[in-house]
Amino acid sequence: MDVNKPITNQKLVDIMQKMKNDNSKEMEFLDELLKAKFLCPDIMKLGANSKNNSGKIVLNEGTTIKLVGLSSENGKNYLMAFTDWTELGKWKIETNQQTLILSYDDYQGVILKDDSTYEGFVINPYGANIVLDKNLIQNINQRFQQMKKGESVMLGSPKEYPYDMAEKLNIYFDKVQVVKRAYLLWMVRGEEASYLLVLDFVGVPQTVFPKIADVCQPYLKGKLLDMIPIGTVFGKSAIENQQPFYQT
Questions:
Q1: Nearest to 101 by CA among 113, 116, 83
Q2: Residue 207 pLDDT
Q3: Domain SseB protein N-terminal spans what residues (predicted)?
């Protein structure tokens, strides 16, 4: 590939920096995530008839490509997604390091395959270290598939209020002390209905939301669950005239 091709993703980098202190940037992050092009290290063995001319490789039969990942402390494998050459250099400083330019769709396509050995991917693992695991990727995919133009959204209190789930969430929030306020609503979007948690919290959705989802899972009884930060436009609108079920 052409190593001189500019890959910067500056808007995404700026948003990731702001997200450390402002969780209302989640939707901006997701928008930029879907548009971004990342550098993914790989090991490529060219087939006999492949060509490498002027920095452009023409791949023919027999070429193999292996994406390079990293392992977490608990032994799970993740792909790496670098926003620019500087971030890539924090991993390895090699003049001839092979890389592919991949999009979010490319990553999720590899990770969500039935035979995939990867648990997700990490954006700038030696910098911002934003982890997107399988559950979060599936949640992102579902959200953007359903957010169609003109789709109506109706919000209200759950007809059958999940008191057991709310009680467990209260206990969990008291324990971790990252959630300041929490609202539990029922959302109907298009043909699909789900619980909606609107949260005022400290941290970033990528680390906070999956743990909350784990607490809720035993009490969903087949129903879906969505979560959004209170600082988003939708979050602010959703809680109008609503009372939090949890507040510090």
A1: 83
A2: 73
A3: 16-137
Burial label, 211 (beta-carbon count in 10 A; 0-12, 13-18, 19+): exposed
Number of domains making up the chain: 2
End-of-domain residue from the set 88, 120, 146 = 146
Please say whether the beta carbons of 192 and 171 come within 8 A: no
% of the chain at pLDDT higher than 70? 83
Domain termination site, one of 93, 123, 146: 146
Give the C-alpha separation, 50 to 46, whole Å: 6
Q: C-alpha angle with apex 26: 76 to 5, nearest 5 degrees? A: 70
How many Cα atoms are found within 13 Å in the side-chain-facing hemisphere of 46?
12
Tokens at 162, concatenated: 């999940």
98 to 55, 211, 218: CA distances (angstroms): 12, 36, 44
d(CA 172, CA 150): 37
Sign of CA dihedral 217, 145, 82, 68: positive
Say yes or no: 19 and 113 in one domain: yes
244: β partners: none
CA distance 234 to 107: 28
* Residues 158, 88 share a domain: no
Instruction: Using the Cα atoms of residue 206, residue 212, residue 213 and residue 214 in order, give the sign of their dihedral.
Output: positive
Supply the range of the domain harboring residue 163. Answer: 153-247
| Per-residue model confidence as pLDDT tens digits over 166-224 | 999 999 999 999 999 999 999 998 778 999 999 998 876 767 888 999 999 999 999 99
Write down the pLDDT at residue 36.
93
CATH of the domain at 192: 3.30.300
